[in-house]
Amino acid sequence: MSTNNVTIYLKAEQNIEMQTPEVCVKDIATLTCADSHVLAKAKSLKLWTFQEGECKRQVISMLKVIAEIEKACPGVSVENLGETDVLVEWISVDRHKGFAQWCKLAFVALISFFGTAFTIMAFHNDIGINEVFSKLYEMVTGYRGDGYGILELSYSVGLAVGIIVFFNHIGGRRITKDPTPIEVEMRVYEKDVNQALIATADREGKTIDVS
Question: Which pTM does this prediction carry?
């Protein structure tokens, strides 16, 4: 069957995680084509195989992918609609959490909880929050505030509610469908890391590219 006038459209992501050592075109990009036979052949093309003991990260140029498809399917036209370089990472996923993983989870949870609590207390100590409440109480009532009252209680409740609303979570439930500030910052951080790794691989000549 002639493959003339057949177009394959590719859409690749910037970062791909693999659980198998063999990397095929279908693993790093979404493909579509009017010819199902050409599409299946293009998807199955092998691009790279990770080896034990070697680097588990590899940058693959989409020019290399396009060249491999055109070589395997002469006459086709390939259109790239996604990223120009793809960072592929081979990871080993253990679906059964062991005791060590639970210990790490507990450690991170404790550090996050007590670290945040210490930061809030240190901030309040720096600004002298007790003196502020005492002075405000005296300005409103005319009497010197003694101990903890409605101001401290209201502030504590408002602080907790503000943190919950800001982070958009109550326990494991999301308040709204919007991404949380942490999720947004993590996506920005992930994008910056990917771009840095891709740029480094390109400068070192380790990108899988056309000859």
Answer: 0.69
Report the chain's terminal Cα–Cα distance, integer Å: 29
Burial class (CB in 10 A: 0-12, 13-18, 19+), 58: buried
pLDDT tens digit string along 17-31? 988 889 999 999 999
Rounded CA separation 2/18 (Å) = 34
Q: What is the DSSP string of 147-169?
A: S--HHHHHHHHHHHHHHHHHHTE
Residues 6+ apart with CB under 8 A from 164: 170, 175
SS3 state at 71: helix
Structure tokens at 84: 């120009």
Where do the domains of the chain lie, and which CATH numbers do they carry? Answer: 7-93 (2.60.480.10), 99-201 (no CATH)
